[in-house]
Every structure is written in C-alpha cells, then in structure tokens.
Design goal:
- With 267 residues, the protein is α+β, with helices and mostly antiparallel strands.
- The chain has 2 domains: 158 residues, Sandwich (Jelly Rolls), CATH 2.60.120; 98 residues, Arc Repressor Mutant, subunit A, CATH 1.10.10.
- It is 39% helix and 25% strand.
- Helix 1 runs antiparallel to helix 2.
- The protein starts with a strand and ends with a strand.
- The C terminus is likely disordered.
Length: 267
C-alpha cells in the first residue's frame, strides 16, 4: 500500500516537493530511494526501521535520509501526513553529516523550524511559488537545517528502555538512573552521546510533540491542551512550542492543517 500525493511541485534545480498522506496502518516494506531526502511529519506517527534500529516519529519529527538507505515504515492508527523534499541525484544534503547509509533524526528540534517556515510559505499562496521563487525558498530551507550530533550505532537495550520511560512516565530522571543502575551524570552523558540531546530535553520535546498532536486533532482551548499535556499553564506551553517551532500554538495549528488537492499515488 502506498501514500496519496495531496500536492507536489518541482523547482528549477530539480528538487521535488510532495505533501503525502498515508492511510492508518499503512506498511511500506523495506525499500530505498535513489535521492537524498528530507521529510517533516506534519500529522500522525510512524515507526521507521533500518540498520540503525527503529525510530518512532510523530508531529514535528524530521529525518534527513541519504540515497540508498534501506528502510521500512509502519504508520500508526491515525495514519500520517508528511512534507517531503527530494534532492536531485547529483546533490546531497550538505548541511547534514550522513555517514555511509545513516539517517539523521530531529524531533521537535531545530530542523523542524526551517521546514515549518517552508510549509507556511506554501500555505500563504493559493498556488505555491513557482520557478526561481520556489527554488530560493527550498534552498533557504535546506541551508537552515540543523541536526544534533548523535550516534549512528544501534542503542543498547537499556538506553531504549530509558527513552521509552522518559516518553511515557513522569518519573524523575534521578529515580530512573537508580532503576537502571547508572549514576545520573553517566546516564545523562550516555543518553546525549546516543541520541544527541539530554534526557530532560528529550522528555520536553516529546511533550511538545504530544501538544502539537492535540492542537491539530481538535479545537480545544489552548489552556485545556496545556493542562492535558502536563504544562504548568498556557504561557508555559506557548513558550515551549515557540522555542521548538518558531511559531505560536495558534500559528502551528493553522499552518500544519494545510492540505493540497491532488490525488495522485506515490509508492
């Protein structure tokens, strides 16, 4: 099963842009692309598997992927909508270090800001910018990508368990260190070396992603979303979302709900 192209365009420099929607439960078996690409998850969630292990992506997740990387995808119960940029065959994502066949991930971090700005540009026009204008927007977006420095090796099982606990529990990090039998300083150092962010930053970013999902899924008042997602209050949520995305919650709700009209298929 494949995704449905909602909108697509090509720049003069042969970059391909697509807004793609995947149905709930879609499974894409192992495959590889012949071009470097960058993808933003606008809505929904998925799990991507490769030789690096498995990565769970959700709203505001970004991946820079080199040509030739074999990977598979399983989309969640709500499906997903993604903005994808494919580079020409003779170009690479030069702002991202992609050793051998490794992907680079960013979850509610600096990379999503540049792609959200591009999405906002496309959203503000009834017909997306064409020719040289679109070229400039895409070039500026790719030049603005920033990814954390993370390990390319698959993480050990205890770090995966720690990451899952940080994502789903409110247990203090010091208590998690005791659970895993690691000194808090060592835990923080090894987590950052593996995933590129501190345990506290990882937990905060995942909370921002959950808030983004709630903002896009309903029209609940912002104060309600803030309390439901575990923020102290609405201003606290506003600050965290603006820091991650460069947008207010209202702005994010508006831009990320943009949808195209085409119904072509992509495999």
């Amino acid at each position: 099963m494949s995704g449905r192209i909602l909108w697509h365009a090509h720049t003069r420099s042969a970059c391909a842009l697509r807004l793609i929607e995947y149905a709930p439960g879609t499974l894409l078996p192992a495959h590889a692309h012949d071009r470097d690409s960058v993808t933003l998850v606008v809505r929904g969630d998925l799990v991507e598997g490769s030789e690096q292990g498995h990565e769970r992506a959700a709203e505001l997740s970004v991946v820079a992927k080199p040509a030739g990387l074999e990977h598979d995808n399983v989309f969640g119960p709500a499906g997903a909508r993604t903005l994808q940029i494919e580079l020409p065959r003779d170009r690479r994502v030069t702002t991202v270090t992609l050793p051998h066949a490794a992907a680079r991930w960013d979850h509610a971090g600096p990379a999503c800001r540049a792609l959200l700005r591009l999405l906002a540009v496309l959203d503000r026009t009834s017909a997306p910018a064409a020719g040289g204008a679109l070229d400039r927007h895409v070039h500026h977006t790719l030049a603005g990508l920033r990814f954390v420095s993370a390990s390319d090796a698959p993480p050990p099982s205890w770090l995966l368990a720690l990451r899952q606990a940080l994502e789903h529990e409110s247990t203090p990090i010091a208590a998690l260190a005791r659970r895993f039998g690691v000194h808090p300083v060592s835990l923080a150092r090894r987590f950052r070396a593996q995933f590129g962010v501190s345990p506290a930053a990882f937990r905060a970013r995942r909370r921002v992603q959950r808030a983004a999902r709630a903002l896009l899924a309903a029209t609940d008042p912002l104060a309600t979303v803030a309390l439901d997602m575990g923020f102290y209050d609405q201003p606290h949520m506003n600050r965290q979302i603006r820091a991650a995305t460069g947008m207010t919650p209202r702005g994010l709700r508006g831009v990320s709900s943009w949808i195209g009209t085409s119904g072509q298929r992509v495999s």
